[in-house]
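Handout for the seminar on molecular recognition.
Each group receives one record of this type.
Step one: identify the two inputs.
Step two: read the structure output and locate the region that could contact iron/sulfur cluster.
Step three: write two sentences on what you found, then compare them with the reference statements printed after the record.
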Amino acid sequence: MTERNYTTVNPCVMCQPMGSVMAFKGIESSMVLMHGSQGCSTYMRLHLSHHFREPVDIASTSLSERGAVYGGSENLKKGLRNVITRYHPKVIGVTTTCLAETIGDDVGRILTEFREEDKNADDVHIISVSTPSYEDSHTTGFIKAVDAIVRHFTEYGMGNDIFNNKLNVVLGEHIAPEDTRELKRILTAIIGLRSFIFLPDASETFDAPMTGKVEKIFPGGTPLSDIIYMKNCAASIGLGITSDNRAVDHLETKYNVPA
Ligand code: SF4
């Protein structure tokens, strides 16, 4: 048997936005727009599709020399318009790359301007995550994105007082789609089918069956309606190899959901 060297099999584990992409791909009708140069999204598409053996779409704002000098506001707004028109997603995850972070683009301000200018964006949830890759790793990118998703939807202003007695299960980035499916099967057998909320759930989006149909966004992922109600659950479990599960901490400190 050939001995494998994992530093060469998975070389881009140090890339923070890659973790963010993995988190967004586990929620319903979600598309990722990477704010930075085109090479980053190409690299991640290639790496993720090699790893999961699935086609992976990641849009890019394609910052060039001009954007690097004058700022990427124009590219980001154009990228958002293109993603909305072509993919019709319910959620767009805007994740930054080394370049966007180095030039110091104020993504929050650009997104506020975009919402004011473009009424087509009213029905789309746009969630930004700051993921400079010269610090931390894909693990942190995943943790930050899941935290941003939970904060966004729990503050969405619905269902504050409807206790649902469910269990939140917030996964770590190392849990494979197959493991997710098995964990869901085990939990269904123990506490029942609708007694838990899994986030993110890439068991179908990163492990889709061959249907012969080309899907722009794969069906599956955690339903948005479930994420909204995570704040009303009975408890949360964070699964992962790091103890830094920010989403679980946030649900505990802000909504008193025991972790
Ligand atoms: S430049 Fe940064 S964000 Fe882009 S692929 Fe490399 S490490 Fe990742």
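Reference statements: The chain has two domains: 12-154, 167-255. The two ends are 43 Å apart (CA to CA).
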